[in-house]
Amino acid sequence: MAKVVVTTKNLTKYYGNTRGVESLDLEINEGEVFGYLGPNGAGKTTTIRMLLDLIRPTSGQASIFGLSTSTDTVKIKKRIGYLPGELELYKNMSGSDLIHYFAALRGGVDWNLVLQLAERFKYDMKKPVKTLSSGNKHKLGLIQAFMHSPELLILDEPTTGLDPLMQQEFYRLIQEVKKEGRTILLSSHNLPEVERICDRVGVIHDGRLITVENVSELKSKAVRTLEIHFASQVTAADFDNLEGISELKAEGRVVRCTVKGSLDGLVKRAARFEVVDLISHEPDLEETFLAYYGGLAN
Ligand SMILES: Nc1ncnc2c1ncn2[C@@H]1O[C@H](COP(=O)(O)OP(=O)(O)O)[C@@H](O)[C@H]1O
Ligand SMILES: [Mg+2]
Q: FRET pair for 50, CA 20 to 30 Å: which of 156, 233, 264, 295?
């Protein structure tokens, strides 16, 4: 059995009458990449801020490394890296000064690692923080989160604002951290992203955890719409008896349908004809999860 690194029990936060999260029971295991997935306003940041003891739960509790998040905060923070959703920085310092400052707060870090991270993310440490674009501030945030090789990384929407190349670099970094047996908790509102980089995913909606699943299970439930363009006319009958296919319509040379789970059957059937184009619409988070779990979310 893997060691549990993060545990929450009945963790609840209300902002006045507004539900932040309610009765959250979560366990994150050592060495896994755990995706915390939900649309805006779902309660991701609220949960993460409670884990960091930046806000206090209305009720319930959480522990990290077996230590209480509300009484052992200092001990916990030494062992984790945190990327906030919105980073507040001292604007008049250069990135380099600021990272030195963060490093000093941590009792020093391996500066080579800082340089490597800056290089990987193409981040210019000399620039004053006030001149940085939001994407570059985000990179600075990532560097300070990873620079001390923490056992646990808690990253609030880490790829928001990163351009596609930097996102790929970030995904590589995540894989390296995972190979070293370290643990990652990251929030996201992007289903394809968590499918790609996470081992397990907890889905939160309206402050409630709807499900926790392995990514493979999640993929088998994903619903996407597909549009296939052929060189000549096809009919709906050409695509009958396929598993997981619904709402199939053939119009002239184009077939549109909804596919649940694997695309394999449909792609093989389509290959009987000359395919000109294939367009897949990525499953929308709201659509996919509300279709499956909407009934449970209320
Ligand atoms: N400081 C706050 N005061 C009042 N309501 C808040 C505050 N922070 C978050 N909320 C509310 O709590 C809910 C969850 O928000 P949040 O945790 O930020 O979601 P997410 O990070 O998933 O987008 C939302 O309804 C949001 O409006
Ligand atoms: Mg948030």
A: 295
